[in-house]
């Protein structure tokens, strides 16, 4: 998509150089220019993420740098990166959001829903979720989506885990490769961006 930039944020456990993050980048690149960044704690070599305000600050700084190119900007994030991107979208004008494995349940606890930021959003958002993701049970996400004001869509990776990876046994049984599963995700993201950005 000409004139569109995708700002790709990593999850808490893997920097932008991680092979799975590179796979996500490859999924996104057919649709727009991808710019990845890392949070300050990862750049400093620390394993534990900073607190949310610091994460938001780093994310906003990356967005500010990108804005100098005067393009449409979509925030794409893996897990924590998607959640932080949602918080950024409450205070910065962005064109759309894509969450790859949104961590709806804190520590996998259904009693600790991280839904406040989702309910406050007005920016169009796509959730890409693995059907086996214990951090985001699909029935709980569906309940949240019904209460959201923002236009929202869902792409389910059947058999996918939190990293949207399908187990080898299931892949074999379905006659698929992970690359083919990822291609389906890429197509879903492309369709969402076309709709959300009016292209």
UniProtKB/TrEMBL annotation:
<dbReference type="InterPro" id="IPR046879">
    <property type="entry name" value="KANL3/Tex30_Abhydrolase"/>
</dbReference>
<feature type="domain" description="KANL3/Tex30 alpha/beta hydrolase-like">
    <location>
        <begin position="4"/>
        <end position="182"/>
    </location>
</feature>
<protein>
    <submittedName>
        <fullName>Alpha/beta hydrolase</fullName>
    </submittedName>
</protein>
<dbReference type="InterPro" id="IPR026555">
    <property type="entry name" value="NSL3/Tex30"/>
</dbReference>
<keyword id="KW-0378">Hydrolase</keyword>
<dbReference type="GO" id="GO:0016787">
    <property type="term" value="F:hydrolase activity"/>
</dbReference>
<dbReference type="Pfam" id="PF20408">
    <property type="entry name" value="Abhydrolase_11"/>
</dbReference>
<dbReference type="InterPro" id="IPR029058">
    <property type="entry name" value="AB_hydrolase_fold"/>
</dbReference>
